[in-house]
Amino acid sequence: MVTINDIAQNTGLSRSTVSAVLSGKTESIRISQTTSELIRKAADRLGYHRNSLAYQMVTGTTNVIGFLSEDLGGTEFTGAILSGIMCESAGSGYYTKLFPYTRGHVEKNLTDIIGQRPAGIISFAVNQPDFERIFDQLAKFGIPLLSLQNIEINRGIFVITADADGVTAAVEHLYSLGHRKIGFFTNRKSMELKSPRNEGFLNGITKHNLSESVVIPELLDTADMETLTRVVASKSYTAIVCDTDYNAMRILQAAAKAGVKVPGELSVTGFANLAAVELCIPPLTTVLQPFTQWGMAAMRKLLSVINDKSKSYLTEKIVEKIEVKLIERESTAPAYPVN
Amino acid sequence: MVTINDIAQNTGLSRSTVSAVLSGKTESIRISQTTSELIRKAADRLGYHRNSLAYQMVTGTTNVIGFLSEDLGGTEFTGAILSGIMCESAGSGYYTKLFPYTRGHVEKNLTDIIGQRPAGIISFAVNQPDFERIFDQLAKFGIPLLSLQNIEINRGIFVITADADGVTAAVEHLYSLGHRKIGFFTNRKSMELKSPRNEGFLNGITKHNLSESVVIPELLDTADMETLTRVVASKSYTAIVCDTDYNAMRILQAAAKAGVKVPGELSVTGFANLAAVELCIPPLTTVLQPFTQWGMAAMRKLLSVINDKSKSYLTEKIVEKIEVKLIERESTAPAYPVN
DNA sequence: TTGTACGCGTTATCAC
DNA sequence: GTGATAACGCGTACAA
After folding, report:
1. What are phi and psi of B35, to 5 degrees?
2. Count of CB contacts below 8 A, A vs B?
3. Closest nucleotide over all strands to A25 (CA to C1')
4. Can you list the alpha helix ranges (DSSP code H) found in B145-195?
5. How many Å apart are CA B313 and CA B147, to the nearest integer?
6. Domain assignment of residue B333, yes or no
């Protein structure tokens, strides 16, 4: 591997001169055009590439952002978010490094992270206690931690999507189509997490006094196809709002099985706007979570915090909300008159 | 940041002793239990974390694998592949760093990569000329490059899925169900790339002499919903094999629109086995590409190459194929008798 | 322009 | 056997 030493030898100049030229300090340090050229030529000819490790060690700063998440597989969320992060960091010279997060094994994760001295961390789906521990430990080393989900804590940086608003928008949309009996499809686990999507649903039905609209009780614990089909066939709801696109697709399947027409007899909405949902039968009305922009916004925020010396995030909670928006497709229509 | 110096000072021992203990060389260098313990305690107490940068610089080896790809967004492929890579590398102490690949800007990419001295690179969807250039340049620095797609080149490392076999399996499956008029849905661009999936289709129909089975000509250039619906409605095929799951979902939509029953009147197969396809109406028969295992296999192979001093990949082509397999769901059935 | 110290950990080599 | 000393790797910063 070619180093500045090789270039110094080759040109007969000193390492410092070479370093100055090659790092563009030619203005402040005043080096003659001639030697400047000479050095650059030599660097090209010998195939020099600055050793980023050495650079980082000596400056004490790294150009690495860590993405801490449990599992990237099985969904297109994370890919799209990472896209946004990379897109935003490209210009600033930052790179993204993937850190595996294993629930409950915080100390191991911390050693990994701190050892590599990243400039900052973006975390996805890290749970409350782990987040708190990681946040505080990283704080000691001046490494800011940004979460993509809200966490009940009085400090830190959060860039989150306005999930509650999104579900409320779905309810409002259905309300305006005349729906009064709206069911919400979610499971008990996310209920217990006081998920924003559940809140959004409750906000919506409270606002319009939809006393016949409820979180579908049968689906809280078991959501197999049989149960789904039974619920759909019962026609207890003229519309079902789902907490994910996948759940909405399940409802579509159940409706097909039960012979219930969507959207004629039942309206359905999803959440996320995955690539597949416009290819559903019928194309799904859903809440668009702008994953790529989300990642970009997170990266921008993190960079601003990295460059902000005040470190206010250590004592106050900084929250940035990303707007979501309802995409109307063909799975929602005016309410079917129910008895 | 706590360094071995701090620990040396704190314990009154020398840096080398501390280093030896903290890097587990306590056997070969023989250091007493007592001092060993003392040092470890101090490290814990002071909150020491080995500076991975310094380690890497001094040893000249990094624990970084680069993932070079154009765009991670819009699909769940890459996330799942990355999952596999991370899963496999976790045990070996390697980390994955994301490198953005911009078609045609190879020199910029190379500078980025070489500057950071990764131990190896896994590339996804890098085109032929760029791959060749990157491969040869990285070779000079001893950085192996593994591609997840096959490339017409006489050297390098390739871990690819057996796409051709997968499509052939789909054709065979349909053949055994009595289908003789099978259409293949792909576009001209992938045809011109001599894609393995097209080959697989041709292999299948050749083997069984299916003279009425063809690559659907109308869909090569325009595959909007109107054209799709027309093709499906024409009933020219009793089955349509698609080169992607998304295309298969489009066929399902078109069939629904045209009033053609799937699988009663038309069988459909996809390719990939995305999470959404079992939620289709009907659940889609498709070829499973095991993304996570794919990533794992790639990582394993890359690690073996990194540790193999012979560097045989520089002069010969190493190809590892990952088996795919047909998943039968409900979008395929015995052939409907066509006139 | 250049010499020199520095950052952090590793690895001989050397003294007790 | 135990531990210390010193050089090394690569690039930066600052005084000379």
Report:
1. -65, -40
2. 160
3. D12
4. 163-176, 188-192
5. 12
6. no
DSSP B284: P
* pLDDT reading at A337 higher than 70: no
Residue A245 identity: D
Is there contact between A64 and strand D, defined as CB under 7 Å from any strand atom?
no
List of B residues 238-277 with CB within 7 A of strand C: none
Q: How many domains does chain A contain in total?
A: 3
Region at B156 (left for phi over 0; alpha for psi -120 to 50; beta for the rest): left
Residue whose tokens read 């310094």: B54
Residue B262, burial from CB neighbour count under 10 angstroms (0-12, 13-18, 19+): buried
Burial class (CB in 10 A: 0-12, 13-18, 19+), B235: middle
Residue B195 tokens, joined: 């894609």
Q: Mark whether B170 and B274 lie in a shared domain.
A: yes
- Within 8 A by CB and 6+ apart from B202, the residues are none
Please name the residue of chain B whose CA is at the shortest distance from the CA of residue A142.
Answer: B1
Among B248, B212, B218, residue whose Cα is nearest residue B230:
B218
Query: What does the alpha-carbon distance between residue A136 and residue A128 come to, in Å, rounded to a whole number?
Result: 12
**Separation in Å, CA B158 to CA B121, B151, B300:** 12, 8, 12
Q: Are residues A145 and A238 part of one domain?
A: no
Rounded Cα distance, B160 and B149, in Å? 5
Query: In the complex, which nucleotide's C1' lies nearest to the CA atom of residue B50?
Result: C9
**One domain, residues A232 and A260:** yes
Partners of residue A283 on adjacent β-strands: none
Per-residue model confidence as pLDDT tens digits over B179-208:
999 999 999 888 777 899 999 999 999 999
Per residue in A187-222, pLDDT (tens digit) is 988 877 789 999 999 999 999 999 999 999 999 999
List helix spans (H) across chain B. 4-11, 15-22, 26-29, 33-46, 52-59, 77-92, 106-116, 128-140, 163-176, 188-192, 196-207, 218-221, 225-233, 245-258, 291-307
Range of the domain at B25: 4-50
pTM: 0.94
Same domain, A191 and A240: yes
CATH code: domain of residue B138: 3.40.50.2300
Same domain, A26 and A127: no
- Mean pLDDT across chain A, nearest whole number? 94
**Distance, CA of B114 to CA of A51 (rounded, Å):** 8
* Cβ within 8 Å, pair A96-B95: no
